[in-house]
């Protein structure tokens, strides 16, 4: 491919308008976590949009049409691609954008364009498609180890049921207290639920989507949707915000029509079960809890109230907030598949959350995303400030009445 070929093939009409609409006002800069920890202006949202607009003009603008497209300097393209992949896709810039650009949807498409040009993905991200083809997960872990190490004893999984639980790769392999908590809470709620066998519960496709490697997405989606459909599933519950995001927003596109079931985050399920009385809290917890909103849960799919409803239902617990919370939350640093490539950024950003939790005298930092869980725990190691980190379902599972 020549570097003067079209740059617009991966973008929707709306995204082309968004690229044109950026006024370079810089308002979003104040909220970008990567800016906060690197101070590198090349990674800023307006600079990425400005450069991409230049690429489009040089190859498809009026001058290009009249006189032929210009070749884009390869080094500039490489630097741009690096910046697009260093972003955590947290979407904070989107939340604060003065003209309403949906960057959390735009950045992955720019990554897809960079992959198409052979300029991405970066580092270990390139091994993901092969790992998923061979093992069903991006970590190259055996499917035999997907559930066995953490699945709670005595929990019954039905062959068929209207509710299904999808553990997800990051939860199953890298945040096991969290998925153990999910299954324990589902069991305590008393409704039958089903799960796919470990070799059938393949990756939801999010790591491939977010790194611009889209070739396997249709196949993964169709395999998973068909498998749940065969089990009579009406509600698919998962705890990873990235899974929830791709399932509810992108699976219908790859599946070719509406899904035959609805997607729920585990906190939505638990809040509803607490409201209806199916779940009852037996204990109490006299602690100050601070809750971190995962970017793909709050800004991604708008699940903000339910986790707080769960935490407020715990007798004795006091819920406190980060300065930036809900739709305005600050990324933990682990998003966008950047955590294994830009390790230092992720650790520095995770420590900002730990520092604020400590400054506000929180007894626990409550998380509800496996990527946050893995990285913020890593950020805690060797840090001079310490706070107890607990997943929201791990916490709830320890307090609910058992059936
Ligand atoms: S998505 Fe997040 S990390 Fe990426 S540019 Fe926007 S604010 Fe920065
Ligand atoms: S806030 Fe929106 S319009 Fe302003 S620089 Fe950022 S992306 Fe562009």
Overall outline = globular
Decide which structural class fits the backbone: alpha/beta
Number of strands: 8
Largest sheet: 4 strands, parallel
H/E element sequence = HHHHHHHHEHHEHHEHEHEHHEHEHEH
Distance, first to last CA: 61 Å
Mean pLDDT: 95
Name the assembly state.
single chain
Give the topology, please:
Blueprint: H1 13-21, H2 33-38, H3 45-60, H4 62-67, H5 74-86, H6 92-96, H7 103-116, H8 128-135, E1 163-166, H9 169-174, H10 176-189, E2 193-194, H11 206-210, H12 217-230, E3 235-238, H13 241-255, E4 262-265, H14 266-276, E5 288-291, H15 295-301, H16 305-312, E6 318-321, H17 343-359, E7 364-367, H18 370-380, E8 388-391, H19 392-397
Helix pairs in contact: 5-7, 12-13, 13-15, 14-16, 17-18
The chain binds iron/sulfur cluster (2 copies).
Put the structure in a nutshell.
The protein contains 19 helices and eight strands. It has 403 residues and is α/β, with parallel strands linked by helices.
What does it look like?
The chain is an alpha/beta fold and 403 residues long. The protein folds into three domains: 13-120, Orthogonal Bundle (Fumarate Reductase Iron-sulfur Protein, Chain B, domain 2); 125-271, no CATH class; 282-397, 3-Layer(aba) Sandwich (Rossmann fold), CATH 3.40.50. The protein has 19 helices and eight strands. α14 (266-276) crosses α16. The protein is globular and about 75 Å long. The relative contact order is 0.12. The chain binds iron/sulfur cluster (SF4) (2 copies).
């Amino acid at each position: 491919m020549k570097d003067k070929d079209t740059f617009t093939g991966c973008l929707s009409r709306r995204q082309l308008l968004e690229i044109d609409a950026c006024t370079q006002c810089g308002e979003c800069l104040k909220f970008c976590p990567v800016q906060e920890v690197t101070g590198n202006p090349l990674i800023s949202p307006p600079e990425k949009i400005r450069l991409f607009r230049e690429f489009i003009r040089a190859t498809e603008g009026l001058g290009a049409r009249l006189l032929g497209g210009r070749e884009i300097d390869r080094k500039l393209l490489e630097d741009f691609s690096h910046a697009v992949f260093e972003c955590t896709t947290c979407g904070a810039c989107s939340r604060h954008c003065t003209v309403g650009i949906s960057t959390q949807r735009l950045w992955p498409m720019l990554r897809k364009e960079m992959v198409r040009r052979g300029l991405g993905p970066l580092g270990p991200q390139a091994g993901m498609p092969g790992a998923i083809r061979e093992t069903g997960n991006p970590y190259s872990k055996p499917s035999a180890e997907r559930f066995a190490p953490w699945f709670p004893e005595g929990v019954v999984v039905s062959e068929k049921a209207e509710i299904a639980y999808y553990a997800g790769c990051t939860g199953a392999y890298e945040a096991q207290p969290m998925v153990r908590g999910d299954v324990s809470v589902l069991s305590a709620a008393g409704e039958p639920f089903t799960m796919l066998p470990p070799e059938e519960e393949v990756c939801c496709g999010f790591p491939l989507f977010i790194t611009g490697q889209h070739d396997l997405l249709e196949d993964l989606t169709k395999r998973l949707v068909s498998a749940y459909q065969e089990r009579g599933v009406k509600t698919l519950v998962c705890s990873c915000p990235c899974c929830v995001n791709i399932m509810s927003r992108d699976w219908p596109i790859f599946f070719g029509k509406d899904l035959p079931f609805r997607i729920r985050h585990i906190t939505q399920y638990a809040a509803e079960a607490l409201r209806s009385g199916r779940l009852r809290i037996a204990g109490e917890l006299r602690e100050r809890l601070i809750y971190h909103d995962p970017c793909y849960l709050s800004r991604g799919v708008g699940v903000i109230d339910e986790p707080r409803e769960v935490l407020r239902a715990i007798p004795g617990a006091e819920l406190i907030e980060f300065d930036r919370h809900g739709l305005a939350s600050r990324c933990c640093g682990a998003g966008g598949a950047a955590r294994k490539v830009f390790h230092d950024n992720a650790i520095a950003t995770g420590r900002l959350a730990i520092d604020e939790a400590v400054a506000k005298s929180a007894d626990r930092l409550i998380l509800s995303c496996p990527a946050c869980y893995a990285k913020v725990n890593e950020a805690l190691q060797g840090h001079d400030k310490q706070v107890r980190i607990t997943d929201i379902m791990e916490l709830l599972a320890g307090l609910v009445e058992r059936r």
